[in-house]
Amino acid sequence: MAVSKNFIIDFLTAFYEDNNIPVYLFQQDRLLFSCPEQETFCYPPKTHADSLRSSIAAGCDIKSFSTPSGAVWGGFCAADSSYFIILGPGFSYSRSRFGDA
After folding, report:
1. pLDDT of residue 99
2. Distance between CA 20 and CA 16 in Å, rounded?
3. pTM of the predicted model as reported, rounded to 2 decimal places
4. Does 89 map to a domain?
5. Which of 38, 54, 58, 85 is 20 to 30 A from 79, comparing alpha carbons?
6. Local structure of residue 82 (DSSP, 8 states)
7. Cβ burial, residue 66 (10 Å; 0-12/13-18/19+)
């Protein structure tokens, strides 16, 4: 069963509202939707997007990585579709990273 674009957009909107982590919906290299709405210069960095896409194309169902600054990016394909979703950046903080408050 194919997943509709509108269902994916509704899901991504709810995900952003609950988690405050930006989401991007692509079809091939074309951005179809982002939440929050983004200008071109705010899209995920091309190197991150390409890394996530190539891992998925190589057979990974889902891929994530973190940058030296602590930003976490994730990507996956919607089941039975040509849509590709990128989440991020998210940030992981711990007491050990900042010391005891």
Report:
1. 55
2. 5
3. 0.76
4. yes
5. 38
6. S
7. middle
Kindly report, residue by residue over 38-84, the tens digit of the pLDDT: 766 566 667 777 777 777 666 667 788 888 878 888 888 876 667 88
Burial of 71 (0-12, 13-18, 19+ CB in 10 A): middle
| Domain that includes residue 51, residue range | 5-93
| Distances from the Cα of 15 to the Cα of 11, 24, 32, 46, 49, angstroms | 6, 11, 17, 23, 19
Task: Give tens-digit pLDDT for 1-32.
Answer: 577 889 999 999 999 999 999 999 988 778 89
CA 1 to chain centre: 23
How far is C-alpha 15 from the geometric centre of its chain's CA atoms? 11
* Residue indicated by tokens 């602590």: 70
CATH number for the domain harbouring residue 64: 3.30.450.240
pLDDT reported for residue 97: 55
